[in-house]
């Protein structure tokens, strides 16, 4: 049985004052022991969030694939780990589009993060045009093939399916559509990693909210959620965690 995992992605939002929300989310997570929860803040907030988190895992939204060097503005996996980060998101569609990150870069980042023991969430997802052309499954499996490491050891690999057209738009894929893609992802993971692929958690992301979370979590092969805007406040995020606990 795979435990549900609910991760908040604050994106380029938040402030020191907003960290009161982290404390409230952490308290709620402790009341839902059957669910793993975490928050990925902007890099400037990781260390202070860790100090306020009460044990709630705090993570980063990106990482560089090199350990050190002339990479102005970038942060390595060991630097993230040093300030208390326990997980990292790589390959989010906003990184792929805005920063032109190809699968090979996402894969290198995942390998670097896993090597440092960080739980690593690899994101994939299709555009509206690709879905309308009937290519959603093939796009997602191609991204998996190019983005996932061949092997990893002492850290957890997670996959997040985030259809680009549903991120921040208010649009949500139907549970049937979600289940179809998650099943394709699971088949790919088992094919690539054998029994180990059956244990990898697959999250759904794309306008997950308190009023749709329960139905999403009841969908086969949905092991949790990667949540954007609704993770910024405890009032919105806690009901999603609680819904995962009932799933």
Write the layout of secondary structure elements.
Layout: E1 4-9, H1 20-30, E2 35-40, H2 46-52, E3 58-60, H3 77-82, E4 87-90, H4 93-98, H5 103-115, E5 119-124, H6 128-132, H7 136-147, E6 157-161, H8 175-193, E7 201-204, H9 213-217, E8 224-227, H10 234-246
Parallel strand pairs: 1-2, 1-8, 2-3, 3-4, 4-5, 5-6, 6-7
Helix pairs in contact: 1-10, 5-7, 7-8
- Percent range for β-strand residues: 15-25%
The helix-strand sequence is EHEHEHEHHEHHEHEHEH
The CATH superfamily label reads Aldolase class I
Q: Pick out the low-confidence regions.
A: none
Largest beta-sheet details: 8 strands, parallel
Structural class: alpha/beta
Q: What is the straight-line distance between the termini?
A: 12 Å
> Roughly how many Å is the radius of gyration?
17 Å
CATH architecture assignment: Alpha-Beta Barrel
Q: Residue share in helices?
A: 25-40%
Task: Tell me the number of strands.
Answer: 8
Shape annotation: globular
In the CATH scheme, the class would be: Alpha Beta
Number of domains: 1
- Biggest sheet strand order reads 7-6-5-4-3-2-1-8
CATH fold type: TIM Barrel
Mean pLDDT: 96
Number of DSSP helical runs: 10
């Amino acid at each position: 049985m795979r435990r549900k995992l609910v991760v908040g992605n604050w994106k380029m939002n938040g402030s020191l004052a907003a960290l009161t929300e982290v404390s409230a989310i952490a308290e709620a997570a402790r009341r839902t022991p059957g669910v793993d929860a975490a928050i990925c803040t902007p890099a400037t907030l990781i260390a202070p969030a860790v100090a306020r988190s009460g044990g709630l895992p705090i993570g980063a939204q990106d990482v560089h694939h090199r350990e050190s060097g002339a990479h102005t503005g970038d942060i390595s996996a060991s630097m993230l780990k040093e300030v208390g980060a326990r997980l990292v998101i790589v390959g989010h569609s906003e990184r792929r589009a805005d920063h032109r990150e190809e699968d090979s870069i996402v894969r290198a980042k995942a390998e670097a993060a896993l090597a440092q023991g960080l739980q690593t969430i690899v994101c994939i997802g299709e555009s509206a045009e690709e879905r309308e052309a009937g290519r959603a499954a093939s796009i997602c499996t191609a991204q998996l093939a190019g983005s996932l490491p061949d092997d990893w050891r002492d850290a957890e690999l997670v996959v997040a399916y985030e259809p680009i057209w549903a991120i921040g738009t208010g649009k949500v894929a139907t549970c049937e559509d979600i289940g179809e893609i998650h099943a394709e992802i699971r088949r790919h993971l088992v094919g690539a990693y054998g029994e180990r692929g059956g244990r990898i958690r697959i999250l759904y992301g794309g306008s997950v909210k308190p009023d749709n979370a329960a139905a999403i979590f009841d969908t086969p092969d949905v092991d949790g959620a990667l949540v954007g805007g609704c993770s910024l406040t405890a009032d919105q995020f806690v009901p999603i965690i609680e819904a995962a606990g009932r799933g």
